[in-house]
Write a structure and sequence with these properties.
Radius of gyration: 15 Å
Largest sheet: none
Low-confidence stretches: none
Number of helices: 5
Strand content: under 5%
């Protein structure tokens, strides 16, 4: 599991990224009213690989402690992109991300009990999820 979990992180990155390909060929996302805090698209391409790298490190170090719940959060993470961008279902995507935040807060508690350093490495992911939830909620309420 020690090596399998980080590989699953990479697989999740690929699966989630495939849904994002449809953004370029789909006018739906471009037509949505977004929060004024919505960053330019290229920011997501910078932030997510960094967050996935940090997730892979944590997955490698703590696979024996976090595997079942971590796998669930990876599935929800990959599903969000498909729900939002491919199926155009921002409300369902918002529900997905709320559950994703809950699971990751539980993971964060486990990590904190194991390593202060790993806790601080995982914290940016939680913060980004909260920001992503805000952006998702903004789209739900503005459109």
């Amino acid at each position: 599991m020690k090596y399998l979990l980080p590989l699953m992180v990479v697989l999740t990155l690929v699966i989630g990224s495939l849904a994002n390909i449809y953004i370029n060929s789909d006018d739906w996302y471009g037509s949505l009213i977004k929060s004024s805090l919505n960053p330019p698209s290229f920011i997501f391409g910078i932030v997510w690989p960094i967050l996935y790298a940090l997730m892979a490190i944590i997955a490698y170090k703590l696979a024996h402690k976090i595997a079942p719940i971590f796998i669930m959060q990876l599935l929800l993470n990959a599903a969000w992109s498909w729900i939002f961008f491919y199926f155009h279902a921002p409300l369902i995507a918002l529900l997905d991300i709320v559950l994703l935040i809950y699971l990751n807060l539980r993971i964060l508690i486990i990590i904190k009990s194991e390593s202060r350093t790993l806790y601080f490495l995982y914290l940016p992911y939680i913060i980004w999820l909260l920001f992503a939830a805000f952006l998702n909620a903004s789209i739900v309420f503005l459109n």
